[in-house]
Amino acid sequence: LPSTGLHTNGYSLVRRVFGIGVGGDEQADRAVLERNYPGLEGTLADALLAVHRSYIAELKPLVPRLHGIAHITGGGILDNVPRILPDGLAARFDRSSWQVPPLFALIQEKGNISETDMFHTFNMGIGIVTVAAREDARAILRDLPDAWLAGEIVVRDEGMPQVIIG
What we know:
This protein is α+β, with helices and mostly antiparallel strands and 166 residues long.
């Protein structure tokens, strides 16, 4: 399921990237936050203060059909998804299945942050990852209209990471 912004993670890094709150100049900080950047709908402050979406109402009726739910917060996709995977399995994400929101691209560009570090820190547009049996996927996607199939669970070979984004 898509995120609505940073949700609850990465704000310290964002402050460093944009130089907010580091120089003691409130007017300079305000100018950075009130700036409109290409791709953002509104100011940087608007994007950073987007309300964290609550997923509970949508997910609660589906819990009996789900094998795992990962809320993508601190640790990003790379650290949260492995927590719901049994030993011997990995999650393979199809990076072309979703559009990373412009805010994350802006942070990455301005901070010269590697893609791996971005996926370790931020949700990158994915707020919740659910895992279900393949035969239940179509019905679950119908019940969650803004959800998409982002990848698959695979047998993990020795040396393979638990999350592959390709």
